[in-house]
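> tool_call: predict_assembly(chains=two)
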Amino acid sequence: MNVVHSFTPAGLREFLVPKLRAFLPAAALLTADEELRPYECDGLSAYRRVPGLVVMPETVEQVAQTLKLCAHHRVPVVARGAGTGLSGGALPHSEGVLLSLARLNRIMEIDVLNCTATVEPGVRNLAISEAAAPHGLYYAPDPSSQIACSIGGNVAENAGGVHCLKYGLTVHNVLGLKFLTSDGELIRLGGKTLDAPGYDLLALLTGSEGMLGVIVEITVKLLPRPERAQVMLAAFDDLENAGGAVAAIIAAGIIPAGLEMMDRLAIRAAEDFVHAGYPVGAAAILLCELDGTNEEVSDGILRVRELLLEHGATEVRTARDEAERLKMWAGRKAAFPAVGRLAPDYYCMDGTIPRKHLAGVLAQISALSREYGLPVANVFHAGDGNLHPLILYDANKPGDLTRTEELGGKILELCIAAGGTITGEHGVGVEKIDQMCAQFGSAELAQFHAVKRAFDPHGLLNPGKAVPTLARCAEFGRMHVHGGKLAFPGIERF
Amino acid sequence: MNNTDISITLAETVREAAERNKPLAIHGNGTKRFFIGDLGGEPLDVTGHRGIVSYEPTELVVSARAGTPLAEIEARLAEHNQMLAFEPPHFGADATLGGTIACGLSGPRRPYAGAARDHVLGVKMINGCGEILAFGGQVMKNVAGYDLSRLMVGALGTLGVLLEVSLKVLPKPASEITLMFELPADRAIVAMNTWAGRPLPLSAASHSGDTLAIRLSGAAQAVQAAHAKLGGEVVEKGEEFWRELREHRRGFFRDDAPLWRLSVPPAVPPLKLPGKWLIDWGGGQRWIKTQAPAAEIHDAAEQVGGHAAMVGAAEGRGTGPGPAALAPELVPLHRNLKQAFDPHAILNRAMVS
């Protein structure tokens, strides 16, 4: 927004490195091209940009000093966790600092009686559950990258996972945060209490994609590990029936721990890859996991089985033991790489729709797939309507990526038209920034910018991400005009 | 049931007030006035903006206008065996949805099922410039843009006038029982928190005098099995017990001493303040009737990582858990946010200090 410096990447390094060396060890600074390359993209490799330099602080104080220095000289800062994000949220700024929080990776405390864990942002998602396991506790949100992704990134993106319907997203499982403002001031939000005075900044920071502050400590809620978890697999020869079964389970008052759907292409790909024993002839399969006390699960399994059969399931299997349960999940968990074997590249979408439109939206996606001549496999969180269409393409074929992006954009617009959203859990980043213009009107976007300015008046944190400028939306040609006139006729069109 | 949309009129009123720098005091039916005190300013009545806009049981979502009575929404959900899982207090027969969300109030189920903010999926609102804005939506997962819907929860109307709220709803548990145990406070706190860390269908835990009360919710066999594990004496009319607690109608609330609310880490042992205690939220929310000086109460809460606020003091204005009790480093961010939503500072001005 108001960035005034005009460094080249080399000029930035020459200017900033001596100043950073005053408080950072040499190992915390990466400046050579071969050191910078690994940071040119996150999990969405279609967007790449080499950062001006990479800073890897080891203490919160070093992060604060880095931010103060950058604020003073108006240098943009992009925070990065484990780099597993899927929306280009950690795409670097070539005339800015890429601030890696990977070395802030200590688990500070597991408080067994209060059921909380306090950790630094670089701690891996799964490491929290591993540390809590001896106490019979775990951290519920489980994005599929949980082996690698960091909790700081999870908070920045408000990450989800397969257990969201029952256990919520990251925002429902974070109790406290410490973050640094763009000028390096430490702010503490919440703690181990169930609420905090003032505005709910905890909710606001969660999912803010590194635009409002840099998170340096997180207190999460831990849950008791359920006594029992059991999964069922149901096959359908019709997508509409599968959608109907999902609605019927919910209507019966059952909230499964996980309720996942895969379509024909995804089933075949997963089966070929991990041999999970999936019925390859089916049009769709549902994986339904119930957890809770022994009695709760026994009761639920019988009812769900009946509902599935009533709604046209051609086959229902219940995992007999833990090994079989893990095998059933293996196919779902490996679905992305499995689909990845079908084509040189794939592009993962993340729209969410009201469940009732599942069958309709899937039919429209399939029509678009034929129109563009690009296969689409569908793997998704059916319980909460979160779709992950995977578009198969070949980046080496001229024009393929452009057509893929166009098809992706159309799929997101379908989700908006069905009353849903362009992103359920991956974030906007750089990837979906144009679709934000379709999701929101100019007044809402202007309100987002006002919130951004309230935290970061000079626009230094992760500039250009998450919220498009009104000018960009005007170019995108989807400017929403309310009542025949612009909401802020006097606003600067930056 | 009457169903009226007056959003355009409300937005015009706010726009006009903004132009003239005229403060507005947003109100519903005033059931929580004791909680937030006198707002000052020209009254802006939202009760005319009412009605359930959409409710689809299989989507687990209800959307209603801010002036809709909470009781009307709960009755509609009950027809489909569903509920607002944050179990909001009403504090009066005609409590509205808007007031409930603006105050961010949650009942006994809060530690186990989440707070009001955890169930908000989207809002329509009017900002301080009189613009109608929509954030979030009606789907469970939505990370497009900043989470401004949840920011409105508990903001006491200082950032906008709520027009419509979409909430996640949940099935009512098939079965519930309430159990009582004779235990002093220190042992009750340990028990509640130990049980919360085990796979038990716990849905409420409260202590007063020498009695710990807990509620178990879920499939009938699951509730019975947990009862067999824990023991305790079954309370007849358990539902009424939790309702009385939630609505501050227990004998505890009925004396003249000032009422304070302390929010502390749930497992913190009993605090050494003189007065009568009532513990809710599995230890996380503690009420005390005390004549102790304010500074002493604030200190006691802060020492254990919590915070305290006086609620509906006998004489005049009480302070809710609003901006009054803020840590100093949070003040500039709050001021900037207020400015971002309400640049003329016309909305519920008295709540912003």
